[in-house]
Design goal:
Length: 496
């Protein structure tokens, strides 16, 4: 098959960081082509150049034999190159049709032709075989349905190239199945698909070929039908690494009295939650989506109220009415919702890292910027931040490194109880290993850790004990010697 998209010696340099270094490879017309690599490998940077977000520093891109250089996103869209984002941006109070045609509504003399707009929207949605009406309110749609609207947008501009960035991160199994069917239909129509995902099973199931990037460099392009999972991972990380979470040191549990005791905690979303947590212990919380695990953690952290029960920290009952109060008492929560509750885009690394611990940097009544800088360097080194530059704008980091900034922020609070909610969600295999090692080191220092996870291999590999929840209640507690997939899934599904 002939080359369709060609990257020739593409490089991109940001202040203090070379994000892409002499990248050259090609993509065939009408194939599903994965671009894979660890966080910080350069995947998003390469796509951003293709989509006109910013220009390459060196090299060029050719499409169908012609060199292209897009000054802005609109130029790429006009050339038939569209993107379906992981986080769907929409205006919830507007209709599907209004969102789909925003800025290019059909009409004359400033009067929008709503009938034509709805008809055109219906035609596009029918091509996707999805049960959405043009007049539906966007805010009432599920994440998967919003993604269908985003794909319809790409069809509306007659895209010949569509990229998908972590498209299944927030979808149900049924929505994933629907999405995969649509992507295959797009391929059958000759549309070229670029696919970014950290999920190996998806890449093997969906993609014809995959290009591996590592540290901003091109490594190799692989035919998926002729390779193995181990070979792909080896190419991605440049070293052998277990697919599954694995402890490198034994349980670090310290003392006979719990640091945290939760007794009979209740709310509208969970009922009679009781457990103990010890210093140096990693306590796993497992359950299906909707089991109530996150809601329990938010209540302990003071982010949501509870109606009954008690939270006892170091032998003394507390009732945190706000996250600020929880932080003051030494409890930290690294939220699952890192997009909305994570970095501030206009802040650099040192300011994002210092957000939850500002009192530490005071000199009298003034914040000492040097203290913030020193803390950012120290905590950045601990989490493996790249680049570990306090003045680097966090918004310019890769997804994995931005997540490390958030970890560094909560480590800066010197919390004695650390709650990780889905700590490796959306993170590549190599970065997962970094997070696991960091958790173990914190446990070794006596930090009591709760890890909420939906990955069975992760919760089994990292936990000293596991608590299983279902429908807002604890259905089982397992010691290390009781860990097995069957035992955990019995408690997850059957509740006994």
């Amino acid at each position: 098959m002939e080359k369709y998209i060609e990257f020739e010696h593409v490089g991109k340099t940001f202040p203090g960081q070379k994000a892409l270094d002499d990248v050259s490879f090609s993509i065939r017309k009408g194939e599903i082509h994965a671009i894979i690599g660890e966080n910080g490998a350069g995947k998003s940077t390469l796509l951003n150049i293709l989509h006109g977000v910013f220009p390459a520093t060196t090299g060029e891109i050719r499409i169908d034999g012609k060199a292209v250089k897009f000054a802005e996103i609109a130029d790429a869209i006009d050339a038939g190159i569209a993107k379906v984002h992981q986080e769907i941006v929409s205006i919830p109070d507007m209709t599907v049709a209004e969102n789909l045609f925003m800025g290019k509504e059909p009409g004359r003399y400033g009067i929008i032709d709503k009938k034509k707009m709805n008809q055109d929207t219906e035609t596009l949605l029918k091509r996707l075989n999805c049960n959405i009406q043009p007049t539906d309110r966007m805010g009432d749609l599920s994440t998967g349905q919003k993604q269908m609207v985003s794909i319809a947008k790409a069809l509306e501009v007659n895209a010949t190239v569509i990229s998908f960035d972590e498209p299944t991160a927030s979808l149900s199994d049924k929505e994933v199945e629907t999405l995969f069917g649509i992507i295959h239909d797009l391929k059958e129509k000759g549309i070229t698909i670029l696919y970014i995902s950290h999920k190996m099973n998806e890449i093997f199931q969906m993609c014809d070929r995959a290009t591996v990037l590592r540290d901003g460099k091109y490594i190799k392009t692989i035919e998926m039908a002729k390779t193995t999972r181990d070979e792909v991972i080896q190419a991605m990380v440049g070293r052998d690494i277990s697919l599954f979470a694995k402890r490198t040191m034994p349980c670090q549990k310290k003392g006979t009295e719990p640091v945290l005791r939760v007794d009979g905690l209740c709310s509208d979303l969970f009922n009679q939650i009781s457990f103990d947590l010890y210093a140096g212990e990693i306590l796993g919380f497992f359950g299906l989506v909707g089991a109530g695990r996150t809601e329990v953690m938010r209540a302990i952290f003071g982010a949501d109220p509870y109606t009954k029960g008690s939270v006892i920290l170091n032998g003394k009952e507390i009732h945190c009415k706000s996250p600020h109060e929880a932080i003051e008492r030494g409890i930290a929560l690294i939220s699952e919702n890192r997009k909305e509750e994570g970095i501030l885009p206009n802040f650099d690394n040192k300011d994002n890292i210092s957000l939850a611990s500002l009192k530490k940097y005071m000199s009298g009544i003034v914040i000492n910027d040097n203290k913030k800088k020193q803390n950012a360097l120290e905590k950045g080194k601990q989490v493996g931040l790249k680049p570990n530059d306090p003045a680097f704008m966090t918004v310019s980091l890769s997804g994995g490194n931005a997540q490390k900034v958030i970890l560094a922020r909560w480590m800066s609070t010197d919390a004695t109880v650390m709650i990780f909610d889905e700590p490796t969600k959306g993170i590549d295999i190599g970065a997962k290993a970094d997070i696991y090692l960091l958790m173990e080191k914190m446990a070794e220092q006596g930090v009591a850790i709760i890890m909420v996870s939906s990955e069975l291999t992760e919760v089994m590999g990292m936990s000293d004990r596991i608590i299983v929840m279902r429908d807002g209640e604890i259905t089982g507690e397992l010691a290390k010697e009781e860990f097995s997939e069957q035992n955990i899934l019995n408690y997850t599904v059957e509740g006994n």
